[in-house]
Design brief:
The chain is α/β, with parallel strands linked by helices. The chain has 3 domains: about 30 residues; about 190 residues, 2-enoyl-CoA Hydratase, Chain A, domain 1, CATH 3.90.226.10; about 190 residues, 2-enoyl-CoA Hydratase, Chain A, domain 1 (Alpha-Beta Complex). It has a 6-stranded parallel beta sheet with strand order 8-6-5-4-1-9, sandwiched between helices. Strands 10, 13, 14, 15 and 16 form a 5-stranded parallel beta sheet that branches. It has a two-stranded parallel ribbon with strand order 2-3. α5 links the parallel β5 and β6. α3 crosses α11. The longest helix has about 35 residues. The N and C termini lie far apart (about 65 Å). The model has no long low-confidence stretch (mean pLDDT about 90).
Length: about 450
């Protein structure tokens, strides 16, 4: 009797062994490649950034301007840097931007700042104002600022207005629309699904829960929103008009004025912006490069103007670390993001984790005072109370606490600030939203209809 497997069985057995070998080989190859990349990246010394003499600092901010970055897994960050992968939601630390501008002000090698803001995403008006003040101080040193762009969003243009000259591409885009607030409402949708909403709310102007109990904005919410939106728009117009040297009425806040001027500009957004004195001139990409070459000369390749970008200049200006003494200190605790219970990573406020930082400041004898930097829309009432109680313990230990509000300190953000010895806010800080709410949705009626 012949016990040898048949030819078909041997064929499929060979195919399986080949596929299994290929799979393991490829996985091992990828694994070894990752290990080698990490070892090379960690072991190699990064070349120092060389800032040319007589050069331009290109302030090419990419992402959201924030008080504190969201924590990213170090291994993921390492791989992203090794393979040149861009972050999905890049963030720029406000403190770093201010540091770079201040360093450039004192750096004889930097002759001009070029604002290239097309990758700048969201930034609260208070943060933009802080950067604007730093740009004013830079100009006071006798140096020039030029803003260049093919288009400007409303936030990007706010910073561009601080430049000595604002350049826009001939086919570019710029339109200032003001501030607004838009909200989806789900009451009717929930009723169609027979979802029961159990709402508990305290506070007339506590509107965060309205989308689940209404199909439109309440009169109280409209009044509150109009109040802070009008204040923000007034601040925006006042600042931009002051920097550009025109009247605050030069913003075309009605459709008739906009259409008339737009038609006069031949339907061109760029010409419309130029006629409104929002920009100084319309310049092509090549002409932009040539004019900047005349200011600071060519780069080493001779293809563009001499320049150092924001990221590289930050590395160069941060290389010389400032040494601090072990004497009396002021602790700065950043409370940025939504307030949640428990321990949270940077970029989110955790009741336990933020209280722990405050507790460290309380027990540190070298710390004589605490600044709580708040940039939060609120969140958990329980977590907010945990943090607030820790602030009272710091005060009981004889250390003053100052709450410094950033773009937003609403609801729980105001709660954790309220016990401070002093509260300092920006003119454009959004604060308030006093009140609490609880919500529970049940599906007993929905299940009954299935």
């Amino acid at each position: 009797m012949n016990n040898q497997p048949g030819i078909i069985r041997r064929f499929f057995s060979f195919c399986w062994r080949f596929l299994d070998f290929s799979r393991r080989f490829l996985l091992n190859l990828i694994f070894i490649g990752i290990i080698v990349s990490v070892i090379v990246l960690v072991s190699s010394d990064e070349a120092p950034v060389l800032v040319p003499d007589k050069t331009a600092l290109v302030l090419d901010l990419r992402g959201d301007i924030v008080e504190q970055k969201i924590e990213i897994d170090p291994f993921d960050a390492l791989l992203n840097e090794a393979y040149g992968v861009q972050e999905e939601k890049p963030e720029v630390l406000l403190a770093n931007v201010l540091e770079v501008i201040d360093s450039a002000k004192q750096d004889d090698r930097i002759e001009v700042i070029v604002l290239k803001l097309d990758q700048l995403r969201s930034a609260g008006l208070s943060k933009l104002q802080d950067i604007g003040k730093a740009l004013v101080e830079f100009k006071a040193s006798g140096k020039k600022i030029i803003a260049v762009g093919e288009y400007y969003s409303q936030g990007q243009y706010y910073l561009a207005s601080y430049a000595d000259e604002v350049w826009l591409a001939p086919n570019g885009y710029l339109l200032l629309e003001g501030f607004g607030r838009y909200q989806l409402y789900f009451k009717s949708a929930l009723e169609k699904l027979s979802v029961s909403s159990h709402i508990f709310r305290v506070g007339t102007y506590k509107s965060a829960v309205e989308p689940y109990i209404r199909d439109d904005m309440s009169d109280a919410a409209k009044a509150a929103n109009r109040l802070w939106l009008n204040d923000l728009w007034k601040e925006y117009k006042t600042d931009v008009a002051a920097q550009r040297g025109f009247d605050v009425s030069n913003f075309d806040e009605n459709v008739e004025s906009l259409i008339t001027k737009f038609n006069d500009a031949g339907g061109s957004f760029a010409d419309y912006a130029l006629q409104n004195q929002w920009v100084d001139k319309l310049v092509t990409r090549n002409d932009m490069r040539q004019e900047l070459i005349e200011l600071v000369g060519k780069n080493t390749s001779g293809e563009s103007f001499s320049q150092v970008n924001y990221k590289n200049y930050l590395k160069a200006s941060s290389s010389a670390l400032t040494e601090y003494s072990d004497d009396d200190k002021v602790a700065i605790v950043v409370a940025k993001g939504v307030i949640l219970n428990g321990t949270q990573k940077p970029g989110t406020i955790g009741g336990e984790s933020t209280a722990y930082l405050l507790r460290q400041a309380r027990f540190n004898d070298d710390v004589k005072a605490v600044v709580l930097r708040v940039d939060s829309p609120g969140g958990s009432a329980f977590a907010s109370e945990v943090i607030r109680q820790e602030i009272e313990l710091i005060q009981a230990a004889g250390k003053p606490v100052v709450a410094s509000m950033g773009t937003m300190a609403a609801s729980g953000g105001y709660w954790i600030s309220a016990s401070a010895d002093k509260i300092i806010a920006s003119p454009t800080t959004i604060t308030g939203s006093i009140g609490i709410f609880g919500m529970l949705m049940t599906l007993e009626n929905t299940l009954g209809e299935l």
